[in-house]
Amino acid sequence: SPDLVVQKEQALPEGGATEATVRRVVRLIDINEYKRRQSPPGVKITGLAFGKDRRLPIASGWQR
What we know:
This protein is mostly helical. It has helices spanning 2-8, 12-15, 19-31, 33-38.
């Protein structure tokens, strides 16, 4: 599931998701980065939130 990739950083065999599914989810997250830059940083509600733990700069237009 996407939660395993984002929050637990597990490999594909451990999570049970196919490589195509993981690539799709990562692509969707990357495409929607503009939404994150439009809003102020929020509070951290999970173990690995989309904040400083993800190490993606908000202001620099990051892309893979």
